[in-house]
Amino acid sequence: xxxxxxxxxxxxxxxxxxxxxxxxxxxxxxxxxxxxxxxxxxxxxxxxxxxxxxxxxxxxxxxxxxxxxxxxxxxxxxxxxxxxxxxxxxxxxxxxxxxxxxxxxxxxxxxxxxxxxxxxxxxxxxxxxxxxxxxxxxxxxxxxxxxxxxxxxxxxxxxxxxxxxxxxxxxxxxxx
Length: 176
Hints:
Elements: H1 19-22, H2 24-45, H3 51-55, H4 58-66, H5 73-87, H6 98-108, H7 112-126, E1 139-140, E2 158-159
Parallel strand pairs: 1-2
Helix pairs in contact: 2-4, 2-5, 2-7, 4-5
């Protein structure tokens, strides 16, 4: 089932508490946004960034492309971390526990090229091959800091160009 998205330039879907749990269209759009972030991370990691550094700020870029309010970004990042840590065999740690931080640290203790390939495999699994091409084709691009003379990472068409925000940068304003 192909769910239409608002026309480009239209108003973003506003943040509404618990709406993601009760609105099937919004739930699917958040899932596709998470897929876009997962697909984008291996390309961003090519710039030498470990998993969590590459993740930082990426969900806000995905919200722009998916026409979602920036308030949805933390949920998209949390879902991304959840599926990556689960696929790494760390179970389903709760979001606000030390176990989740330790799971991310264990992933980041691996060599960067392994982290990158692992995140790509997670993105491929999240796409669910039983569902015919639910990946949104948001953009075909590479990280702006990357050498564009090299072949593009085979992440597919669902890769957004973004440079992760520095950890101490001021937050972006809510909304669009």
